[in-house]
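Extended Data, panel c. Modelled sequence:
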Amino acid sequence: MSSDKSNKNVIQMATQDADGNNSDPQQKRTAAPLEGAVCEHCFGTGMEVVPGKGARPCHCRIQDSRRKLFDAARIPRRYSECSLDNFKTEANSSQNIAFRYACRLVLDYPAVDRGLLFIGPVGVGKTHLSVAILKGLIEKGVPCLFCEFGSLLKQIQDSYNPISQTSEMRVLAPVYQAEVLVLDELGATVPTDWVRDTMYQIINKRYNDRKLTIFTTNFLDAPRVEHGDDYDLQEESVSRRRMKLTDKRVREIDPPTLEERIGTRMRSRLYEMCNKVEIQGDDYRKRLDKHRFESKRI
């Protein structure tokens, strides 16, 4: 079976609702009335009568509820079109494995006790898959929230301003309460004491409350294997090998591990909170840019 057919089968399974009905929004959208119009199925009551089965919530109300859940999820416009359907993978690749983890989580929810930790370089689809999971769960009526970690920290900092119209707790309450949370770009912000304390506060709260959380990060669990002229970067200690490099080369050749970036306590909690899914591959943005350049060549 080809990868495309296999992926479609997994997607179809993952987008079924609790009654076994296909929850594809494209198929149900026709049941939703135009804004200001009265639904021809329920006549504005919100309940439609199904011959031989009785009454049930009308699709127009279901779609309206899902639209509100989508708005509340705060998915950035850049990723609003991301879905399981348009995630392209090759058979037996790490991206295909990650795709199947995402489909399985959507399919099994709410019988899921661990989230996902997507680890990998930039441009391999970590955020795409995370958003696709949220959209799949929203179709099942699950309240979700997307947060980019750096932006969240900025909102918290802004809440300390005396003229701010919000507070730290008002910013963090949706993060604590979200049934499913995506915390994107974990560890991307320089780890000051305040950043680590705030990160620990968020992760530990959701850990204690057993809230499902999906993380993405560019930082690996182990140093990359690279060879210099006179030494092996993996075999030498972190302190020794960094003494041989400028600060810029340290960042380029020897980036910190995830544990170094977020701290031992938080990495320990992530082991219990999530299944780690490591994704490899080329930066799709570079491929896209190259394709655009070549298509415009005269």
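The chain is about 45% helix and 10% strand. This feature is highlighted in the accompanying rendering.
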